[in-house]
Amino acid sequence: MSDPDALEPGQARGAGGDFAALTATASRLQAAIESVVEGKSEVVRSVLAVLFAGGHLLIEDVPGVGKTMLSKTLARAIDGTVRRIQFTPDLLPSDVTGVSIFNQDTRAFEFRPGGVFANIVVGDEINRASPKTQSALLECMEERQVTVDNATYHLDEPFMVIATQNPIEMEGTYPLPEAQRDRFMARVSMGYPVPAAELAMLEGHTGLSPLDEVEPVTSAAEVAKLVDVVRGVYVAPSVQRYAVDIVSATRRSPELRLGASPRATLHLMRVAKAWAALEQRDYVVPDDVQRLGSTVLAHRLLLSPEAAMGGRTPEQVLSSLLAAIPAPSGRSAGGG
Questions:
Q1: Domains of the chain (ranges plus CATH)?
Q2: How many CB atoms lie within 10 A of CB 301?
Q3: pTM of the predicted structure, to 2 decimals
Protein backbone atom coordinates (compact mmCIF):
# COMPACT_ATOMS: atom_id res chain seq x y z
CA MET A 1 0.00 0.00 0.00
CA SER A 2 1.89 3.01 -1.25
CA ASP A 3 1.44 6.28 0.62
CA PRO A 4 2.33 9.36 -1.42
CA ASP A 5 2.61 11.41 1.75
CA ALA A 6 5.28 9.12 3.28
CA LEU A 7 8.68 10.79 3.41
CA GLU A 8 12.04 9.59 4.61
CA PRO A 9 12.46 9.51 8.42
CA GLY A 10 13.60 12.80 9.80
CA GLN A 11 12.14 14.66 6.80
CA ALA A 12 8.48 14.61 7.82
CA ARG A 13 6.62 17.82 7.18
CA GLY A 14 5.71 17.72 10.85
CA ALA A 15 9.33 18.07 11.98
CA GLY A 16 10.49 21.01 14.03
CA GLY A 17 8.08 23.74 15.07
CA ASP A 18 4.98 22.15 13.57
CA PHE A 19 5.58 18.92 15.46
CA ALA A 20 6.08 20.87 18.66
CA ALA A 21 2.79 22.70 18.00
CA LEU A 22 1.02 19.37 17.51
CA THR A 23 2.35 18.01 20.80
CA ALA A 24 1.44 21.19 22.68
CA THR A 25 -2.06 21.35 21.19
CA ALA A 26 -2.73 17.67 21.92
CA SER A 27 -1.57 18.16 25.51
CA ARG A 28 -3.92 21.11 26.01
CA LEU A 29 -6.84 19.23 24.47
CA GLN A 30 -6.19 16.17 26.61
CA ALA A 31 -6.04 18.28 29.77
CA ALA A 32 -9.28 20.07 28.85
CA ILE A 33 -11.15 16.82 28.18
CA GLU A 34 -9.81 15.08 31.27
CA SER A 35 -10.99 17.98 33.42
CA VAL A 36 -14.49 16.74 32.58
CA VAL A 37 -14.06 13.03 31.74
CA GLU A 38 -12.17 11.49 34.65
CA GLY A 39 -9.79 8.54 34.39
CA LYS A 40 -10.02 7.85 30.65
CA SER A 41 -6.58 8.92 29.39
CA GLU A 42 -6.25 6.09 26.85
CA VAL A 43 -9.70 6.74 25.39
CA VAL A 44 -9.03 10.48 25.16
CA ARG A 45 -5.74 9.82 23.39
CA SER A 46 -7.49 7.60 20.86
CA VAL A 47 -10.05 10.35 20.24
CA LEU A 48 -7.29 12.88 19.62
CA ALA A 49 -5.53 10.48 17.24
CA VAL A 50 -8.72 10.21 15.17
CA LEU A 51 -9.13 14.00 15.23
CA PHE A 52 -5.60 14.64 13.94
CA ALA A 53 -5.92 11.80 11.42
CA GLY A 54 -8.90 13.61 9.88
CA GLY A 55 -11.35 10.80 10.64
CA HIS A 56 -14.71 10.18 12.27
CA LEU A 57 -15.34 8.43 15.57
CA LEU A 58 -17.97 6.02 16.86
CA ILE A 59 -18.34 5.87 20.64
CA GLU A 60 -20.21 2.75 21.65
CA ASP A 61 -21.08 1.88 25.25
CA VAL A 62 -23.83 1.51 27.81
CA PRO A 63 -25.77 4.59 29.01
CA GLY A 64 -24.34 6.95 31.57
CA VAL A 65 -20.60 6.43 31.08
CA GLY A 66 -19.91 9.82 29.45
CA LYS A 67 -20.14 9.20 25.70
CA THR A 68 -21.97 12.43 24.92
CA MET A 69 -20.01 14.36 27.54
CA LEU A 70 -16.73 13.33 25.92
CA SER A 71 -18.00 14.42 22.50
CA LYS A 72 -19.29 17.77 23.73
CA THR A 73 -16.10 18.49 25.68
CA LEU A 74 -13.89 17.92 22.63
CA ALA A 75 -16.21 20.10 20.59
CA ARG A 76 -16.06 22.90 23.14
CA ALA A 77 -12.26 22.68 23.49
CA ILE A 78 -11.92 23.46 19.77
CA ASP A 79 -12.87 27.02 18.91
CA GLY A 80 -14.78 26.00 15.82
CA THR A 81 -18.39 25.52 14.83
CA VAL A 82 -20.23 22.77 16.67
CA ARG A 83 -23.62 21.20 15.99
CA ARG A 84 -25.38 18.48 17.94
CA ILE A 85 -27.92 16.23 16.22
CA GLN A 86 -30.19 14.12 18.40
CA PHE A 87 -30.99 11.12 16.22
CA THR A 88 -34.61 10.00 16.64
CA PRO A 89 -36.96 7.86 14.51
CA ASP A 90 -38.70 10.97 13.15
CA LEU A 91 -35.48 12.76 12.13
CA LEU A 92 -35.46 13.46 8.39
CA PRO A 93 -32.47 13.38 6.01
CA SER A 94 -33.06 17.07 5.29
CA ASP A 95 -32.59 17.80 9.01
CA VAL A 96 -29.08 16.41 8.63
CA THR A 97 -27.99 17.71 5.24
CA GLY A 98 -30.20 20.76 4.71
CA VAL A 99 -33.08 21.68 2.43
CA SER A 100 -33.89 24.13 -0.36
CA ILE A 101 -36.70 26.54 0.57
CA PHE A 102 -38.57 28.72 -1.92
CA ASN A 103 -38.23 32.39 -1.02
CA GLN A 104 -41.40 34.27 -1.98
CA ASP A 105 -39.59 37.62 -1.98
CA THR A 106 -36.74 36.66 -4.31
CA ARG A 107 -38.80 34.08 -6.23
CA ALA A 108 -35.89 31.65 -5.94
CA PHE A 109 -34.89 28.62 -3.92
CA GLU A 110 -32.51 29.21 -1.02
CA PHE A 111 -30.46 26.52 0.68
CA ARG A 112 -30.78 26.21 4.44
CA PRO A 113 -27.87 24.18 5.84
CA GLY A 114 -28.58 21.17 8.04
CA GLY A 115 -26.83 19.91 11.14
CA VAL A 116 -23.71 18.62 9.37
CA PHE A 117 -22.51 22.11 8.50
CA ALA A 118 -20.04 22.45 11.35
CA ASN A 119 -16.45 21.54 12.22
CA ILE A 120 -17.54 19.06 14.90
CA VAL A 121 -20.86 17.25 14.50
CA VAL A 122 -22.04 15.32 17.57
CA GLY A 123 -24.53 12.65 16.51
CA ASP A 124 -26.20 11.40 19.68
CA GLU A 125 -27.65 7.87 19.59
CA ILE A 126 -27.15 7.55 15.86
CA ASN A 127 -28.77 4.10 15.70
CA ARG A 128 -32.17 5.53 16.72
CA ALA A 129 -32.66 7.19 13.32
CA SER A 130 -34.06 5.35 10.32
CA PRO A 131 -31.67 3.84 7.75
CA LYS A 132 -32.74 6.55 5.28
CA THR A 133 -31.64 9.28 7.68
CA GLN A 134 -28.45 7.45 8.60
CA SER A 135 -27.55 7.26 4.91
CA ALA A 136 -27.66 11.06 4.73
CA LEU A 137 -24.26 11.00 6.46
CA LEU A 138 -22.55 8.75 3.90
CA GLU A 139 -21.56 11.44 1.39
CA CYS A 140 -20.54 14.06 3.91
CA MET A 141 -18.39 11.66 5.96
CA GLU A 142 -16.46 10.36 2.97
CA GLU A 143 -16.33 13.32 0.58
CA ARG A 144 -16.72 16.30 2.93
CA GLN A 145 -19.60 17.62 0.86
CA VAL A 146 -23.40 17.57 0.66
CA THR A 147 -25.50 17.30 -2.48
CA VAL A 148 -29.05 18.67 -2.31
CA ASP A 149 -31.24 19.21 -5.40
CA ASN A 150 -28.27 18.64 -7.73
CA ALA A 151 -26.24 21.36 -6.00
CA THR A 152 -23.06 20.46 -4.10
CA TYR A 153 -22.01 22.28 -0.94
CA HIS A 154 -18.55 21.75 0.54
CA LEU A 155 -18.07 21.37 4.28
CA ASP A 156 -15.51 23.32 6.28
CA GLU A 157 -12.23 21.78 7.38
CA PRO A 158 -11.69 20.21 9.80
CA PHE A 159 -14.87 18.15 9.69
CA MET A 160 -15.41 15.38 12.22
CA VAL A 161 -18.48 13.34 13.06
CA ILE A 162 -18.55 11.93 16.59
CA ALA A 163 -21.45 9.52 16.89
CA THR A 164 -22.63 7.67 19.98
CA GLN A 165 -24.72 4.56 20.30
CA ASN A 166 -25.83 2.10 22.98
CA PRO A 167 -25.02 -1.51 21.94
CA ILE A 168 -27.21 -3.07 24.64
CA GLU A 169 -30.65 -1.55 24.10
CA MET A 170 -31.92 -2.76 20.73
CA GLU A 171 -35.61 -1.85 20.99
CA GLY A 172 -36.48 1.07 18.73
CA THR A 173 -33.06 1.15 17.09
CA TYR A 174 -31.74 0.51 13.58
CA PRO A 175 -28.33 -1.20 13.38
CA LEU A 176 -25.79 0.83 11.43
CA PRO A 177 -25.30 -0.65 7.94
CA GLU A 178 -21.84 -1.86 7.01
CA ALA A 179 -21.30 1.08 4.63
CA GLN A 180 -21.94 3.49 7.50
CA ARG A 181 -19.72 1.67 10.01
CA ASP A 182 -16.91 1.54 7.47
CA ARG A 183 -16.82 5.33 7.30
CA PHE A 184 -15.97 5.62 10.98
CA MET A 185 -12.21 5.58 11.29
CA ALA A 186 -12.32 4.10 14.77
CA ARG A 187 -14.63 2.90 17.50
CA VAL A 188 -13.93 3.33 21.20
CA SER A 189 -15.75 2.24 24.33
CA MET A 190 -15.74 4.33 27.47
CA GLY A 191 -16.09 1.59 30.08
CA TYR A 192 -16.98 2.20 33.69
CA PRO A 193 -14.68 4.54 35.63
CA VAL A 194 -12.38 3.21 38.33
CA PRO A 195 -13.59 3.95 41.89
CA ALA A 196 -11.12 6.82 42.38
CA ALA A 197 -12.33 8.52 39.19
CA GLU A 198 -15.96 7.99 40.19
CA LEU A 199 -15.28 9.58 43.59
CA ALA A 200 -13.63 12.55 41.88
CA MET A 201 -16.69 12.82 39.64
CA LEU A 202 -18.97 12.98 42.69
CA GLU A 203 -16.89 15.79 44.15
CA GLY A 204 -16.64 17.82 40.95
CA HIS A 205 -19.90 17.16 39.09
CA THR A 206 -22.59 17.50 41.74
CA GLY A 207 -22.65 21.30 41.50
CA LEU A 208 -22.25 23.16 38.24
CA SER A 209 -21.44 21.09 35.19
CA PRO A 210 -17.67 21.04 34.58
CA LEU A 211 -18.46 21.37 30.88
CA ASP A 212 -19.46 24.98 31.56
CA GLU A 213 -15.89 25.74 32.64
CA VAL A 214 -14.19 24.33 29.53
CA GLU A 215 -12.60 27.04 27.41
CA PRO A 216 -11.34 26.61 23.83
CA VAL A 217 -7.65 25.65 23.80
CA THR A 218 -7.13 25.65 20.04
CA SER A 219 -8.85 26.75 16.84
CA ALA A 220 -10.37 24.91 13.92
CA ALA A 221 -7.76 26.44 11.62
CA GLU A 222 -4.95 25.14 13.83
CA VAL A 223 -6.46 21.64 13.91
CA ALA A 224 -6.75 21.64 10.10
CA LYS A 225 -3.09 22.64 9.88
CA LEU A 226 -2.03 19.87 12.26
CA VAL A 227 -4.00 17.28 10.29
CA ASP A 228 -1.73 18.17 7.38
CA VAL A 229 1.31 17.85 9.66
CA VAL A 230 0.28 14.29 10.56
CA ARG A 231 0.09 13.33 6.88
CA GLY A 232 3.85 13.84 6.69
CA VAL A 233 4.69 11.15 9.25
CA TYR A 234 6.88 8.47 7.68
CA VAL A 235 5.66 4.88 7.24
CA ALA A 236 8.28 2.31 6.24
CA PRO A 237 7.33 -0.11 3.43
CA SER A 238 7.59 -3.04 5.85
CA VAL A 239 5.07 -1.40 8.20
CA GLN A 240 2.73 -0.75 5.27
CA ARG A 241 2.96 -4.43 4.33
CA TYR A 242 2.27 -5.38 7.94
CA ALA A 243 -0.95 -3.36 7.90
CA VAL A 244 -2.00 -4.93 4.60
CA ASP A 245 -1.25 -8.41 5.99
CA ILE A 246 -3.50 -7.76 8.98
CA VAL A 247 -6.39 -6.49 6.89
CA SER A 248 -5.98 -9.29 4.35
CA ALA A 249 -6.10 -11.87 7.13
CA THR A 250 -9.56 -10.63 8.17
CA ARG A 251 -10.81 -11.35 4.64
CA ARG A 252 -9.52 -14.94 4.71
CA SER A 253 -10.57 -15.87 8.23
CA PRO A 254 -13.24 -18.62 8.35
CA GLU A 255 -14.58 -16.98 11.51
CA LEU A 256 -15.55 -13.83 9.63
CA ARG A 257 -18.14 -13.46 6.89
CA LEU A 258 -17.06 -9.88 6.23
CA GLY A 259 -13.47 -8.69 6.57
CA ALA A 260 -12.05 -5.19 6.57
CA SER A 261 -12.19 -3.02 3.45
CA PRO A 262 -9.39 -1.17 1.62
CA ARG A 263 -10.76 1.97 3.29
CA ALA A 264 -9.98 0.30 6.61
CA THR A 265 -6.34 -0.14 5.56
CA LEU A 266 -6.09 3.57 4.77
CA HIS A 267 -7.74 4.48 8.06
CA LEU A 268 -5.36 2.21 9.98
CA MET A 269 -2.36 3.93 8.43
CA ARG A 270 -3.70 7.43 8.99
CA VAL A 271 -4.55 6.90 12.63
CA ALA A 272 -1.20 5.13 13.18
CA LYS A 273 0.52 8.24 11.82
CA ALA A 274 -1.46 10.41 14.22
CA TRP A 275 -0.67 8.13 17.15
CA ALA A 276 3.04 8.24 16.30
CA ALA A 277 2.89 12.03 16.16
CA LEU A 278 1.20 12.15 19.57
CA GLU A 279 4.08 9.99 20.82
CA GLN A 280 6.45 12.65 19.43
CA ARG A 281 7.75 10.45 16.64
CA ASP A 282 7.86 11.37 12.95
CA TYR A 283 7.62 7.71 11.92
CA VAL A 284 5.25 4.80 12.56
CA VAL A 285 6.43 1.60 14.26
CA PRO A 286 4.69 -1.81 14.11
CA ASP A 287 3.52 -1.39 17.71
CA ASP A 288 1.39 1.57 16.60
CA VAL A 289 -0.40 -0.59 14.04
CA GLN A 290 -0.83 -3.46 16.48
CA ARG A 291 -2.11 -1.22 19.27
CA LEU A 292 -4.71 0.42 17.05
CA GLY A 293 -5.78 -2.69 15.14
CA SER A 294 -8.85 -3.45 17.24
CA THR A 295 -9.88 0.20 17.54
CA VAL A 296 -9.83 0.70 13.76
CA LEU A 297 -10.91 -2.70 12.45
CA ALA A 298 -13.14 -4.55 14.91
CA HIS A 299 -16.34 -2.55 14.31
CA ARG A 300 -16.15 -3.32 10.57
CA LEU A 301 -16.00 -7.12 10.95
CA LEU A 302 -18.97 -9.48 10.80
CA LEU A 303 -18.73 -12.89 12.46
CA SER A 304 -19.63 -16.10 10.69
CA PRO A 305 -22.71 -17.85 12.14
CA GLU A 306 -20.49 -20.57 13.62
CA ALA A 307 -18.19 -18.06 15.36
CA ALA A 308 -21.19 -16.12 16.70
CA MET A 309 -22.80 -19.28 18.05
CA GLY A 310 -19.48 -20.17 19.66
CA GLY A 311 -19.54 -16.91 21.62
CA ARG A 312 -16.62 -15.34 19.77
CA THR A 313 -16.38 -11.56 19.33
CA PRO A 314 -14.74 -9.62 16.47
CA GLU A 315 -12.16 -8.36 18.97
CA GLN A 316 -11.21 -11.93 19.92
CA VAL A 317 -10.92 -13.02 16.30
CA LEU A 318 -8.79 -9.98 15.50
CA SER A 319 -6.57 -10.63 18.51
CA SER A 320 -5.93 -14.18 17.26
CA LEU A 321 -5.08 -12.90 13.80
CA LEU A 322 -2.69 -10.27 15.17
CA ALA A 323 -0.93 -12.91 17.26
CA ALA A 324 -0.40 -15.08 14.17
CA ILE A 325 1.05 -12.34 11.92
CA PRO A 326 4.75 -11.63 12.52
CA ALA A 327 5.52 -7.95 12.96
CA PRO A 328 8.49 -6.48 11.09
CA SER A 329 11.58 -5.81 13.13
CA GLY A 330 14.90 -4.08 12.73
CA ARG A 331 15.70 -0.78 11.04
CA SER A 332 13.16 -1.34 8.27
CA ALA A 333 10.30 -1.31 10.81
CA GLY A 334 10.75 2.21 12.08
CA GLY A 335 12.51 5.45 11.46
CA GLY A 336 15.87 4.01 10.56
A1: 17-333 (3.40.50.300)
A2: 25
A3: 0.87
